[in-house]
Structure formats: C-alpha cells, structure tokens
Specification:
By secondary structure, the chain is mostly helical. Helices cover 58% and strands 4% of the residues.
Length: 187
C-alpha cells in the first residue's frame, strides 16, 4: 500500500505522471502497472516472511496453491487502496501519512487481547475484526466472529433468514436465529 501510494504521489508531485500519460503510456496502463508492482512486491515479501517463520511455526507448504492466490488477492486489494491514497494525496509525505493512518487501525484491532478491555468493547472489536480474516499470532484463518445460534431445529431455517428478519416459513416475523458476537479464538 505504501509503495504504490508513495510512487504515484511522487510522480504527481514531480509532474512525471502528466508527462508519462501524454503519449508514452495511458493513464489506465500506468495505474495497472503500479498495482501489479504492489501485488508482486506483496507476494515476494509475504513468501519471504513465511519462509523466515517456518523454523518457528509450522507452515503447511502443501497448501501453497491456496496461499499464493490469497496473497495475490490481498496484495491487489492493498495496491488498490494505495492507488486511491496516491491519487488523493498530492505529496509523498501526505500519502505516507494516510497509508499508515489507514493501516494502523487494522493492526490495533488484530492485537487486542481478550482480557484488556471490557466485554462490550471486545464484542465490538470482534465484529469489526470480522472484516479481516486473520488474527495476529495465530497464522490461521478465524471462523466468523458472529456466531449464529439457532432456537429451533427446523430444517427450513437458514442463516440468511436471520439477516433478513424472516421466519422459517419465509414470512416477515421473528427469525429463528439470534446473532451473537461472542466469538472466542481457539487454537
């Protein structure tokens, strides 16, 4: 994110972006190249980090066919956010500040241990952290922080009914499910 936003902001700050897009490269082509650069850098750095922690943690390298697409998808998403930051910020310093300001809350949410805040705030943190599928230190994907507890054993009841506020018959009414944000991370 920082690489892409900084490089785009630097090109705009030094007026290189307009000179490049006049005839050498299209605007879309330049942005795609920057996103590809960010995604490739994310892949290389993440694989190097995984290789570095392999002696200390067990990494299932047999699942590399799943790891690489996940890294590429996350790298592309981070690169897209970096492009948005670089386009919004006119200077490199501003883009770096924005990139850190947007990345730090994600790190904060993933590092809050369960005994340090009250239960209500922890439930809110678990709900927000549900958008980010990994918890720091575990290295494994979490189950959803929102658990669905059923009140009936009806085969017609579905988890989507709870979100829509529908009964088991599909009509408006009390849903047979209750959403709970009391997820616990179990190793």
């Amino acid at each position: 994110m920082l690489l892409v936003s900084g490089s785009l902001a630097l090109e705009r700050e030094e007026n290189t972006y307009t000179r490049l897009t006049r005839g050498l490269v299209s605007r879309t082509g330049l942005l795609v190249e920057k996103a590809t650069l960010g995604t490739g850098a994310a892949l290389v750095v993440t694989l190097l980090m995984l290789a570095a922690i392999t002696p200390f943690e067990s990494i299932s390298w047999s699942r590399i066919y799943l790891i690489v697409p996940a890294i590429l998808l996350a790298g592309a998403a981070s690169s897209g956010l970096g492009l948005a930051i670089g386009a919004a910020a006119r200077e490199v310093r501003a883009s770096a500040l924005l990139a850190f300001a947007l990345a730090l809350p994600v790190a904060f949410i993933s590092l809050v241990p369960s005994g340090t805040v009250n239960k209500t705030l922890l439930d809110v943190i678990h709900i927000i952290a549900g958008a980010f599928p990994f918890r720091a230190g575990s290295g494994r994907p979490l189950r959803s922080p929102i658990r669905i507890r059923t009140r009936s054993r009806s085969p017609l009841a579905s988890p989507g009914a709870a979100d829509a506020g529908l009964s088991a018959a599909g009509t408006p009414g009390p849903a047979p499910f209750r959403l709970s944000a009391s997820a616990r991370v179990t190793p």
